[in-house]
Amino acid sequence: MTPEERRQLWQHMRTPVISLGLLMALLAINVILGATLPFHGVWMLEAAVVLCMVLVVLFLSMDVSHEAPLIRVFSMLGFFWVLILFTMTLTDYLAR
Amino acid sequence: MAEAVLVGIERAEHFESIDQQREAASLGMWAWLLTELLLFSGLFLIALILRIQHPAAVTLATTHLKFWIGAANTAVLICSSFTMSGAIGLSRLGWQRGMVGCMLATATLGTLFLGLKGFEYYQDYAEHMMRFLGQPYALAADQATRLFIDVYFITTALHGLHLITGVSILLVLTVMAGRPNFLAQHQNRIEIYGLYWHFIDLIWIIVFPVLYVLNR
Residue B84: exposed, middle, or buried by beta-carbon count in 10 A (0-12, 13-18, 19+)? Predict the structure, then answer.
């Protein structure tokens, strides 16, 4: 592999490598939290870690930010709809 | 070392341009993925409501789930997402052999996930957790646990079905991708399929904490 080919390869693989590193690190945090349960209400931290992992997959692996504007809006609306579903249902159950 | 081939998309006659064709394919895949997201979201919501309504029963049920197999499977899928991204990156460069290698690695990791899941199901069976098979239920003393265990099997089986479909399509696509001129005419297919694979990973990234981790 020539230096130019190596440079091209790194240019195309940099984002996937960053994504892999971030996802593995976040998974390690959640596994440690799940295995040790260090404090009461740890679920809030675990949920925040999951949210970070979802954002990493969406923006780095699935590359939403580089899609056409229509696709960006469409994908974000889909997740927004799910957010409404969760918020309204959980508000009902948690307020009972 | 890397023999680059021509990369491009063959324009179908009903599209005005290659860009329009690419965007239409991407939008179509996203539309389908979002319906899938809604399907799984219903199951996640049920699991969370059960945690709110029956916290003790859910905690008892989760002690029977195989936390470390779930964690290992999450790592396997994250690695498979990386190899799929590798296939996409190499397809953009026109490095066909490397791309096919990455696709095969992705299919292998997907199969490894299914193997681990099968082993987990076998252990569940041995521990009398599969009530729906007619065997005596291990947690019969606490009937509320049944609800959560049922959601666990439905969610993981549905995800497994998506993965079996994904591996099957990937293997067919790999055979097609190994042919001459594939990248010159259909590079877009690798990108579109990659969206599906990342989505399967995304769903499991949510399944693992919702079922195995939260407030164990």
Answer: buried
